[in-house]
Amino acid sequence: MTLELDRLTADLEQMATAAAANYQAQLRRAEQLRRLLADHATDWAGIRAGLQMATEKADEKFFRAAAPLSEDEPLDVPVPAPAPPQQATIIVTDGSQIMPDRHAAYLYYLINIGVMVYHHGGGGAPDIHTAPRLFYPQIVDDMTDDNPGFDQSQVTIERDKAEIETLANFADAYRGATGHVLGLLDQRLLYWPMVGERGASETVVANWTQAMRLIHETGALLAGYIDRPGKRSVVTMLQTLLDEPDFDWRALGKRPVGNELTDAALYATLLGPGERSPVFVDISPANRRFAEEDPNIEVCFFYLNAGVSNRPLEADPDQRGEARAIARVDIPRWVAEDKAAVGVVHSLIYDQCHIQLNYPYALSRADELAVVGHDDEANLGAMIGLAMQRAGVPGTESAKQSGKAAARGGRTRHTMR
Predict the structure, then answer these.
(1) Under 8 Å CB-to-CB from 280, ≥6 apart: which residues?
(2) Chunked mean pLDDT (size 10), the chain, 417 residues
(3) Which residues face 90 on adjacent strands?
(4) What is the DSSP string of 237-287?
(5) What is the pTM of this model?
(6) How big, in percent rounded to 5, are the helix, strand and coil portions of the chain?
(7) Could you state, in order of their start, the residue ranges of all structural domains in the chain?
(8) What's the distance, CA 30 to chain centroid?
């Protein structure tokens, strides 16, 4: 049965009306915070006092903010992209997976890591690599009927771990390359999985931070690129400067219900093509954990207009931010405290965005290398089936899976012969 779209007409109209109201509210809020940013652009003492007040009064469960890394970049002055270095090596890793399916004939999952090594200014073709790995139950006693050995959230964690560990290995392999070496991930650097027991999360974070330290030891630069970021860290910092007598400090940082202004929406009104914000330090319990382990891997960040539009900043106010691709770029403190290194990261990422409109080219290519398509999954399923048959291991899909396939009138995902 097809979706009866005509029955959604009223809901769609209400959705559009609500979105328009939220958009206008965001524009008004952005203008208020933009004025606040200008008024306190170099008010370092006031910013420190506001953040200290928030630390004392806000609920730590919710409070996440940003602090200026230094006091020599006014908060309302965008930083243009410098010229990129003549030569550099950009190493990008990205991952994909086949998730475990307990209704399939055999239980397994797969992680595939794609690696793109782009030789900026070198003229040579990129080096490309893939690293697939198959995971399957090792001990029958570990499985139960309802949890047959694998959890999808753990697969995601394993993929993320493989991405940064592979990046560290390649950074080591390219020690001594001409010019700078930049390791780039398509995700945040402040990694903290919100699943499992606290001890399990600590182990995952320890693996992540160890890989960051290894990259630091190679002499490479490191950055995490987040497209369409949803954080409100800078907005929260600015809220500490509001002169509102009824301000609710306990709720500061709590994610509101609805479409509240994000840092990216604010910077869409401030940054021209290629421009970045000042560098900030992330204020959060997770980042304290990183800094306590090694001050060099404390996570900092800046916002970047990765777009190539030349639309003036003072264009129609209702169209501000159009064609602007605001990204957040995470960098470890060992990069953030070196202004030249920040300039290299800024310029190389923006140069990549010129190759492919509004998004780093090497990230797209690494994703292309990593992605596992439906045909790949089907072929792998067939290979597994044949291997199992040769080993005398029977396997059938669950009744639920077979029933769904029959009801939908299609073939099953994998056809075993």
Answers:
(1) 66, 67, 68, 69, 233, 234, 237, 300, 301, 302
(2) 86 91 86 92 95 89 92 94 96 95 85 96 91 83 51 89 97 94 97 67 91 98 96 92 75 66 92 96 95 97 85 44 77 98 98 91 96 92 90 73 58 41
(3) 118, 182
(4) HHHTT---TT--GGGTTPPPSS----HHHHHTTT--TT-BPPPEEEESHHH
(5) 0.88
(6) 45, 15, 40
(7) 18-242+259-307+319-372
(8) 24
